[in-house]
């Protein structure tokens, strides 16, 4: 890992990992049986300075995507294989979360699949994808982007949870009590 980021255009660059960010939303929107799923995913959660945060968050993602086009993956090295394993885990989390978003009735909160282990599995998957790129491309720039993106997750997650509490009430409160915000082992559903 050098101080000066490498810029080398190539087919085997980190963009291959970044392109997967677009797959789950496409699956959700194209595969939905109506507008309910796409509307459900496009809910705007009121956050102080929301427009500014959205601009900065989007700019960070776009900067990461553009840089990934020029970031050479360390093919054949242990870094690449470590990053690939993390990427595949993130991809499974992301695709399965997307599946449960599509199959959960609109009047119920998402509580199955990866949502059983995290209230925000898509944020976890996003962080893991950036981490996989940082490792597979040996890039301090992507490590910095992880810190920036995680800052947004920390701001957005509580606001989304407040929205879900208003929308789903007691069901979501019970879900929050047994499921960690980021990742972990869910508490028993039994009440004593």
Automatic annotation (TrEMBL):
Coiled coil: none annotated. InterPro entries: Metal_cation-efflux_comp, Phopholipid_MeTrfase. It is a multi-pass membrane protein. Keywords: Membrane, Transmembrane, Transmembrane helix. GO terms for cellular component: endomembrane system. The chain crosses the membrane at residues 12-31, 52-73, 79-101, 122-149. It is found in: Endomembrane system. The keyword Membrane applies. The keyword Acyltransferase does not apply. This is Steroid 5-alpha reductase C-terminal domain-containing protein. It comes from marine sediment metagenome.
């Amino acid at each position: 890992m050098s101080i000066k980021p490498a810029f080398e255009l190539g087919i085997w660059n980190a963009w291959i990992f970044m392109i997967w960010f677009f797959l789950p939303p496409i699956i959700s929107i194209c595969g939905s049986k109506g507008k309910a799923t796409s509307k459900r995913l496009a809910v705007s959660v009121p956050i102080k300075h929301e427009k500014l945060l959205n601009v900065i968050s989007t700019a960070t993602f776009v900067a990461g995507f553009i840089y990934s086009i020029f970031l050479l993956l360390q093919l054949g090295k242990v870094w690449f294989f470590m990053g690939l394993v993390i990427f595949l885990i993130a991809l499974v989390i992301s695709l399965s979360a997307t599946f449960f978003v599509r199959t959960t009735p609109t009047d119920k909160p998402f509580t199955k699949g990866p949502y059983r282990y995290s209230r925000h599995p898509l944020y976890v998957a996003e962080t893991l994808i950036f981490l996989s790129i940082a490792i597979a491309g040996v890039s301090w720039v992507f490590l910095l982007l992880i810190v920036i993106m995680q800052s947004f997750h920390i701001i957005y997650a509580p606001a989304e949870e407040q929205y879900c509490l208003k929308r789903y009430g007691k069901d979501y409160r019970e879900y929050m009590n047994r499921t960690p915000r980021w990742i972990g082992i869910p508490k028993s559903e039994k009440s004593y």
